Amino acid sequence: MTTARYRPNRELAMDPLVSCKLCLGEFPLEQMTTITQCQCVFCTLCLKQYVELLIKEGLETAISCPDSACPKRGHLQENEIECMVATEVMQRYKKLQFEREVLLDPCRTWCPSSTCQAVCQLKETDSPALPQLVQCAVCALEFCSACKASWHPGQTCPENILPITSFLPGENSSFYKNEEDDAPIKRCPKCKVYIERDEGCAQMMCKNCKHAFCWYCLESLDVSWMLETLLMFTES
C-alpha cells in the first residue's frame, strides 16, 4: 500500500488531504483522480491498478467506478483510461471492446477453429436465433452458427458434441484432451469453443462468450475474484 504523506497542520489547512475509497489512504489532491461521469475520487495509483487489472483479465469492457456504492454507477471514459495506462494495455482494451461488439452482433460470430478464430459474417434473417450454415472466409471451415459444430442440416443441435468435428491442417485429436491439466488446447466450459493457452497465468477469458475460468480446474472466476486480487495489490 502506498504510504499517505502527512504534513504539518498549517500546510494541511492550505492543501487538505483527500481520502481514497480503495486503499483508505489520504493524499494531496494532485495525487487523486476524479471520474468524470460520477465525480468519485480515488488516488491515481489505486485507480490505475484497478483499470489495468480489469483489462488484463478481460473481465469488463465498460470499466465501472470501483466504488460498489457509487450513486451514479459511473464508468470511465476511453480518454480517461488512455491517460492512465500504457499503450499496450490500451490496445488490449480496444481489442476486448471489439470482441464484445462481435459477441453482441447477431450478424457476426467467431470461427470456432482454435488456429483461426476469424470473425465470420452471418446472413440477416427474421429469426436470427435459428441455426444457419456459416463458412469461414479465412479457413473455409463450415459450421453451425448456433452450436459451432459441423453443419448439420435438418437436425437439431446436439448438446454434447465437440464444436469442431473436422480439424484444420496441422490439427489432430491428440491436441484436445480436456482431462489433461497441461493440455495446450481446451474447450471453454460454458460455450465449448476451443481455446489455446500459450503462456501466462491460469485465469482465462473466453473471447467467444467472455466466461472467466481457471485453466486447470475449469471452475468459474467471477468479479469477486478480481476484487480480491486488487486488494492484494493495494495492500502490498
Automatic annotation (TrEMBL):
The keyword Membrane applies. Residues 16-236, 20-66 form the RING-type domain. It is a single-pass membrane protein. Gene3D superfamilies: 1.20.120.1750, Zinc/RING finger domain, C3HC4 (zinc finger). InterPro entries: E3_UB_ligase_RBR, IBR_dom, TRIAD_supradom, Znf_RING, Znf_RING/FYVE/PHD, Znf_RING_CS. GO terms for biological process: protein ubiquitination. It catalyses: [E2 ubiquitin-conjugating enzyme]-S-ubiquitinyl-L-cysteine + [acceptor protein]-L-lysine = [E2 ubiquitin-conjugating enzyme]-L-cysteine + [acceptor protein]-N(6)-ubiquitinyl-L-lysine. PANTHER family: RBR FAMILY RING FINGER AND IBR DOMAIN-CONTAINING. Belongs to the RBR family. RNF144 subfamily. Pathway: Protein modification; protein ubiquitination. It comes from the Eukaryota. Its EC number is 2.3.2.31. Keywords: Membrane, Metal-binding, Repeat, Transferase, Transmembrane, Transmembrane helix, Ubl conjugation pathway, Zinc, Zinc-finger. This is RBR-type E3 ubiquitin transferase. Pfam families: IBR (PF01485), IBR_1 (PF22191). One of its GO terms (molecular function) is zinc ion binding. It is found in: Membrane. GO terms for cellular component: cytoplasm; organelle membrane. It is an enzyme of class 2 (transferase). It comes from Takifugu bimaculatus. Its main location: membrane.
